[in-house]
Amino acid sequence: MGYPYKGAYTLLNGNKIIIKHSEIVKDVQIINRDVGKVIFKNGRSFTIVCGEGLLKVHKFYNENNHPIDLNKFRLRFE
Predict the structure, then answer these.
(1) What confidence tier does 2 reach under pLDDT thresholds 50, 70, 90?
(2) CA gap 39, 6 in Å, rounded
(3) Distance of alpha carbon 32 from alpha carbon 23, whole angstroms
C-alpha cells in the first residue's frame, strides 16, 4: 500500500473507493461465499467476504480523498 503503490481500493457501483483503514478478522463459516459481499456492519465499519478470510474496513474515501459515509448494509464490492 505504500510508495510506489497506489494503495488499496475497490469498486462500488462502478466508482473507485479507496480503503485507508482496515484489518483482517477471524473467518466464519459461510455457505454461499460471495466475494465482496458485506456480512457484518458495526457502526461505520463493514466486514467484507474475501476469497479466503474476512476484511473489516473502517474508513472509505473517494478518489478526491474525501471520506465516504456508507449507510446501507446491502453492498457488494467488486
Answers:
(1) low
(2) 27
(3) 22
Q: Cα–Cα distances in Å, from 39 out to 20, 22, 52, 63, 74?
A: 20, 15, 14, 25, 9
* pLDDT, position 12: 85
Q: Is the pLDDT of residue 64 over 70?
A: yes
Helix (H, G, I), strand (E, B) or coil at 26: coil
Listed by start position, the domains of the chain span 8-68
d(CA 33, CA 30): 6
Grid cell for residue 69:
459515509
Q: Is 13 left (phi over 0), alpha (psi -120 to 50) or beta?
A: left
Please state, as a whole number, how many other Cβ atoms lie within 10 Å of the Cβ of residue 18: 18
